[in-house]
# Entry
Amino acid sequence: MTEPSGETAPEAVAPAEDVREEAAEAEEPGTAQEPDASDEPGPADGYEPADAPQDTDAAGAEGTDTPGAEGTDTPAAKAPEAAAELSDAQAEIAAQRELRARIEARKAEKDGPLASGAKLSGTAADLLAAVRAVEGGAASGGAFYEAPEPAPRRPAPEAAPAVTVRPPAPERAPAPAPGTTAAVREVLAKGGAPETLAGQVATTLGEGAAAALLDDPWQLLAVPGVRPEQADGFARALIGPACGPDDPRRTVALTAWLLERAALQGHTAQEIQAVRAGLAGHSVPDPQAAVEEAVAAGAVLVFQEEETAEEEPEGDEEPAEAVAEEPASPVLLGLDRYAMAEESLADALARLARTVTPTQWEGSELERAAGAHGLVLHTGGEASRAEPVALASAARERGLRTLVAVYTDDGRRALGAAGADAVTVAALLSGTAGPGRDEEGALALDLLVVLDAPQLDVETAAMLVESLPDGCRLVLSGDPGVLGAPGAGQVFTDVLAARVCPRIASRLPDPGPLGELVSGIGAGELNQVEAPGKEIVIVPVRDAGEAVHRTVQLVADSVPRAIGVPSEQTQVVTVGHGGSAGTRALNAALKQRLNPGPGRFGGYDIGDRVAYAQAPGRTVTGTVLSADAEGLRLRCGDAELLVPKDRVESALRHGWALTAHQAAGTRWPAVVAVLPGDAAGGLSRAWVYTAFGRAERHLSVVHGVDQALPRAVAEGVAPERTTRLRPLLEALLATPEE
# Structure
């Protein structure tokens, strides 16, 4: 790295006020940080800007603006205003339900007869006995479910059909009926909750939402952004003195809410002890009974994965009885949606691995592996993306129906001329791009190459892989060093760790000083890199106020003048949204310098740079072109997008500054990475690797964390996610010798 030149030397500024520290470590499920509104709908800089809680994305998930109830008299006084319509992501998922129907049918047979519990009866007793048996190590979670019959497999197509059926792009789901919303509004008013939540409650709970709330007020927790203390206040207003902390309705809703919060950090399941601790933190008097009640009610599922028995110790090293006391693996609790997605994904990956016809292909190591196997993994940095693209080109020459899918539209741009034939995963699943589907709903493909595979969450990956026909080859390619998917799961990491298919590591290094710096970070070393062309510049700062000042100066003046990259092609990346140098503070300062204005259109002006969450985990950056009665019109790359007026507040933010999670999957000519002193606890090797790797030509590091940066690179391991995909794959595809 190089020290700043005279053009970028820090200027003296008055010390800023102390920054309120935000917890950077992963919290227990009851207090887990949620993804930011740019990745999931939630309050943002909208029609009525208000102060929001500070947060970071250090725990492996973005911070979010969630309505807080501390210090308020009304139980949901700060709950977000509801959006009347479903998001684009929900519409896309709804369009895939027909494809997922066969998956659900396979899972429906999993509830088998179990030994009855002691205090309950019927199914509730069966489930209670299951929890206790699994937790005590007497049986595995899988023992309580009958193995589903394998779904009939489609024969591999011999030739491409003359015409493929392309389903129409899904339309946005209709808004709830006015009568439903009106009934919900009355119930909310009776319970002292903001009536503005009515639309969102009606959308979440359906036509019977009003009756459901009257019967179980804690169902309000199913609405994104509502916190337990708010739901408790709502329940007290409706139920009265009969409302207690051990109410079964409350404990069941809280258990599910804790698992949903954990999913926002990427977990598809949680250890039972962690869930109990979360329940205790919300004043549940008997967390053990609460978990049992949630399992008995079917709100959550219990799992314990099988493990290969280890050899018993010889001699007197350790008594056999002591070994038997501990269960083989942790007891996990999970929600049905993620359990079904992981099991469906494992089944689909195993199906592809088993149904391909091995063929001897000449060419690179990757080509030879793809010819012989149905599932192949490819790892490497930015330069290595050329290798799977070359594989796709060679496969087309062999007559195979081949497609390259990328995570973002920027990923297509980065491929250059080869990107013309690539599509985004979202467009492929929605049917707006790609080869279309056959009469059975399968994509008409013989080879699918997916770039940026670490950004796939488990539900998206399940839908994608289930859409591939038998005999189709799948190549998942990506950089394992970047931050994981914004949704639940760690698909690429789990499949790599399972070792059930070929793994081809690229030997193609990223070029230049930036490539050398980022490669070293991936290996745990923050190296001094020669940058004669000012490819890397370090700007030391003393406090957060100076960090904001220097960032604005870099974007508006120094980088355009010294590097030749204009402000509109320079992206600021910081650790979190809150704090004195988070995205909110930086975006406010950058707007004042680069595009000052009163925020005439819901807090935005023509020319503002924005980040638009088209769907949870899918953020695009663009510029505000105009505003009308329908909403704001944006220019995002080569496309024009409309942000409906009712989604401006929840789905739009100013975008001069992003978090690393938002920036993952996209690169810019110049990047300014901001590391204020209060961000030291939020740094990890994956964060630094991702943030610094977003730069193509130039990287400026606004450095205020002293030795925390090299320490994070050397030792900072990102919080692990609890998932089940790896053992599921190992059980399905393990070879006898393993």
Notes: DSSP finds 26 helices and 19 strands in the chain. The chain has a mean pLDDT of 79. The radius of gyration is 26 Å. The first helix runs from residue 88 to 95.
